[in-house]
């Protein structure tokens, strides 16, 4: 990665501060610095130390990838390595992910990267995606595309308007808080997908009796309803690890549980 001019760090830091809606005074107090020095850094009149940049990044909750970018912009070497998922240093991570995915059977689960690309999944997830065109599942697929594409799971989704509103809201928030162009591009792409004929686009009011937004899917064996959880790795010091998550789907009722077990049995027999 090419080292940028030191003057670039000021605008980058100011952009992150404004994205987090913090004043210079608030950030300076949190980072044990002075408002005057922070102002000089943001305007390019002072070059921040490596230690100060890392403290500021921590208090601004900046992703590790972008912390490296701040350091490079100030003329310093990156602080966090980025290891490919298939590399030797990530062997224990791959093993942990496989254990989490396998242990969640017969319920669907998938490991995803920061752009919602599926990097690994269990057999139950593959069974759930059985009706999705192969081109949408290439290289594992992308969760947002699989859910929202008119040829993906959208036509089978019984509460598509709710699911669409929730998915787009999550993606928009993620794009806004990180400022990553690829997430913004993904949001622009999936939000522009046409809604399959016959499906409503109005999510309606939030169900006061509900605790989560469910994913309700019609299958040849019957209707299924899920809720999901997202698990991330604690205290990551590697860019790749910090951007990995495991999304696990759970049945919302006994009928869905029974259908998942039937599908798993059919898959084993096949």
TrEMBL record:
Domain of life: Bacteria
Native organism: Streptomyces violaceoruber
Signal peptide region: none
GO molecular function: DNA binding
InterPro entries: Cro/C1-type_HTH (IPR001387), Lambda_DNA-bd_dom_sf (IPR010982), MLTR_LBD (IPR041413)
Residue span, HTH cro/C1-type domain: 13-67
Protein name from the UniProt record: Transcriptional regulator
